Amino acid sequence: MTPRSRKLRPKKHELTIQPNTPLLQTLSANHYHMPTPFQTPALPYAYEALEPFIDAETMHLHHDKHHVTYTTKLNAALEKFPEWFEKRVEDMLKNLDAVPESIRPAVRNHGGGHVNHALFWEIMGPNAGGKPTGDLLAAIEKDLDGWDAFVATFEEAATLQFGSGWAWLSVADGKLMVEKTANQDSPLSQGHTPILALDVWEHAYYLKYRNVRPDYIKAWWNVVNWTAVAEKFAAAK
Ligand code: MN
């Protein structure tokens, strides 16, 4: 993470205390927003927890290098507009047109990379896989022609995404849909809410699966934490 730049720190001499002014009022009048940089969330499990489907070395590189770089570059871009540190990255991606033009590509790419990976880590886990139950399974059956059709459609999206990108299960207008995006583009920018994410950038699988993306996709189902996905579905509906 990039340390805050010196210019963003409030300076000691800028705190001026007027006589006979209540302390709280003084503190309030001298309140400076300390921009809080975005942080790469820690993995919610050990790096080796997804073995043998996703290897520990890939997880180290993917989380500690790739994700951290997205977060670092997002923070570096926002330093020019420190008030944007107050916002949620998800909200920036929902309305990219509102982001200052000079940092819009950085927010789209690095902000997207930051939130996409945060979701990706959350919806995976050890001792996972299988099928969802309850409302989520019912919605998959209703909106996506059943479980088998969903799996086939999702695998097709992940396989056919040309070059770097993502496959998603998203909620759009109250219904589930499968979609894919290029690079670090987020379904949020289309007004959709992603609840399941599969990273198909080569950095996500190349060490173990080399160029065989379909083998990675098949193996990945074994680490999907459907409990986490169901929670995101319930929140998105
Ligand atoms: Mn990635």
Describe the structure.
It contains 9 helices and 3 strands. 43% of the residues lie in helices and 10% in strands. Strands 2-1-3 form a 3-stranded antiparallel beta sheet. The longest helix is centred in the N-terminal third of the chain and has 23 residues. The N terminus is likely disordered. β1 and β2 form a beta hairpin. The chain folds into 2 domains: 67 residues, Helix Hairpins; 103 residues, Iron/manganese superoxide dismutase, C-terminal domain (minor pseudopilin epsh fold), CATH 3.55.40. By secondary structure, it is mostly helical. The protein is globular. The two termini are 34 Å apart. Bound molecules: manganese (II) ion. The site of manganese (II) ion has 7 residues, from α2.
| Oligomer category | single chain
Q: What's the helical proportion of residues?
A: 40-55%
CATH architecture of the largest domain: 3-Layer(bab) Sandwich
Distance between the termini: 34 Å
Strands, total number: 3
Which ions, cofactors or small ligands are bound in this entry? manganese (II) ion
Give the ordered list of helices and strands: HHHHHHEEEHHH
Going across the major beta sheet, what is the strand order?
2-1-3
Kindly name the structural category.
mainly alpha
CATH C-level class of the largest domain: Alpha Beta
- Overall pLDDT, averaged? 91
Largest sheet: 3 strands, antiparallel
Number of helices: 9
CATH topology of the largest domain: minor pseudopilin epsh fold
Radius of gyration: 21 Å
Shape: globular
Number of domains: 2
Q: Which blocks of ≥5 consecutive residues have pLDDT under 50? A: 1-14, 25-30
